[in-house]
Specification:
By secondary structure, this protein is α/β, with parallel strands linked by helices. The protein has two domains: 38 residues; 130 residues, UDP N-Acetylglucosamine Acyltransferase, domain 1 (3 Solenoid), CATH 2.160.10.10. 30% of the residues lie in helices and 25% in strands. The strands form four sheets. A six-stranded mixed beta sheet has the order 2-5-10-13-16-17. Strands 1-4-9-12-15 form a five-stranded parallel beta sheet, with no helix packed on it. A four-stranded parallel beta sheet has the order 3-6-11-14, with no helix packed on it. Helix 1 runs antiparallel to helix 2.
């Protein structure tokens, strides 16, 4: 990514904070434009992507987010991994000119919820209708309709089981009206 593009995207990200403070609707429109300019693939319109989500700048086009998905505050989505560099140095096979890394796609399905402070690692595929608990470190393939949490993230139950239990408890509140 060239320097002018990096500066432009940094300014746009700062402006998102202002728009977020002024109007949720204004922020929503601006954030979708920002994600597209960043290169993130949108498979439909996400419900919400927090302004402080950290998208790997190595290659944001390797990240896709599905329709109706919520990505909450301070989530980090990585597509690169420099661990191979350490390994190559260890066995004496380091390239003297270039640093080596893995670059892998990250796919987040439709109608997912990614909890605050979660890390989505390179190569992760999160199926549709998944809930990722706050602070989770997610890697690999998460089957559709799963609730996972922890470090490393592990399956807790199905989204159906979780939702039925929460519905029966009736401890949730109604938020904003649907648009």
């Amino acid at each position: 990514m060239n320097l002018i593009r990096k500066i432009s995207l940094a300014v746009q990200k700062k402006m998102l904070a202002v728009k977020y403070a002024v109007s949720a609707k204004w922020y929503e429109k601006a954030s979708l434009k920002y994600l597209k300019k960043l290169g993130v693939k949108l498979d439909g319109k996400p419900k919400f992507v927090a302004r402080d989500v950290k998208f790997d700048s190595t290659d944001p086009s390797k990240i896709s987010i599905g329709e109706g998905t919520v990505v909450t505050s301070k989530v980090t989505i990585l597509v690169h991994d420099y661990s191979i560099e350490c390994g190559l140095v260890t066995i004496g096979k380091q390239d003297p000119v270039y640093e080596s890394m893995f670059i892998r796609e990250v796919k987040i399905g439709k109608n997912c919820f990614i909890g605050q402070n979660s890390f989505i690692t390179p190569g992760t595929e999160i199926g549709d209708n998944c809930i990722i608990g706050a602070g989770s470190v997610v890697r690999g393939k998460i089957p559709p309709n799963s609730v996972v949490t922890g470090n490393p993230a592990a399956l807790v139950c199905s989204t159906d089981e979780w939702a039925e239990k929460k519905f029966a408890q009736q401890k949730y509140v109604k938020g904003a009206k649907r648009r």
